[in-house]
Specification:
alpha+beta, two-stranded parallel sheet, elongated
Length: 170
C-alpha cells in the first residue's frame, strides 16, 4: 500500500497544475520555482503509486487516474477547508445553537430586536427558545440542562428520566 501521508500543499500544487495545464504557470502563480512544484508533484505521485500527469513541452495533461484523483482531491480539500471554517466559526460563536430560557414577562420588548440583530450578524447560529413559567421552573431546567450536558444527553425528556431515576436512588 502506498504511503498516503500527504502534504496538503502538494495536493494544492497538483490541483493548480491540473487547472492551469502547466507546471511553469502554476509555479509562477504561487511565486515558486517550476522545479519545486515539479519535484513536489513527483513526491506526491510516488506516494500515491500513480502518475498524475503526462508531461510534454507544451504542458501537463492529467492521466485518467490523475483526473479522478484531482477531482476527488478537490472535493476533499473543499470539505477540509469547510471543516476548518466551521470549527473556527463554532469556536468564536458564529455558528451552533444558542439556547435561551425566558420567562413570559421577558418575551416582549427588546429581546425580539436583539435576536434579529444577532441573527443578522451570525446567520449560522440557531436559536432554541424555551419558555419558563416560574423561577423554580428556570432553576429546574438549568439544573437538568447542566446534568444533561455533562452526561451527554440532549433530549429534555431523557434528562428528566435520568433526574427522576437519580432522585429515586438517592
Amino acid at each position: 500500500m502506498p504511503d498516503i501521508a500527504l502534504d496538503l500543499r502538494f495536493l494544492h500544487y497538483a490541483i493548480l497544475v491540473a487547472r492551469i495545464g502547466s507546471f511553469r504557470a502554476a509555479a509562477e502563480s504561487m511565486n515558486l520555482s517550476q522545479s519545486t512544484v515539479s519535484r513536489r508533484i513527483r513526491v506526491l505521485e510516488r506516494r500515491l503509486g500513480i502518475e498524475l500527469f503526462e508531461r510534454d513541452p507544451s504542458g501537463a495533461y492529467l492521466t485518467p487516474a490523475g483526473a479522478k484523483f484531482v477531482e476527488d482531491a478537490e472535493r476533499g480539500m473543499t470539505a477540509l477547508l469547510r471543516a476548518v471554517d466551521n470549527a473556527r466559526n463554532l469556536h468564536k460563536g458564529a455558528t451552533g445553537v444558542l439556547r435561551i430560557g425566558l420567562m413570559t414577562s421577558l418575551s416582549g420588548g427588546f429581546l425580539s430586536d436583539s435576536l434579529k440583530a444577532f441573527h443578522t450578524k451570525y446567520p449560522e447560529v440557531e436559536f432554541e427558545i424555551n419558555e419558563i413559567t416560574s423561577e423554580s421552573g428556570l432553576a429546574l431546567q438549568l439544573r437538568f440542562h447542566l446534568i444533561s450536558e455533562s452526561l451527554g444527553y440532549h433530549d429534555l425528556d431523557e434528562v428528566m428520566d435520568v433526574g427522576i431515576a437519580c432522585r429515586g436512588n438517592a
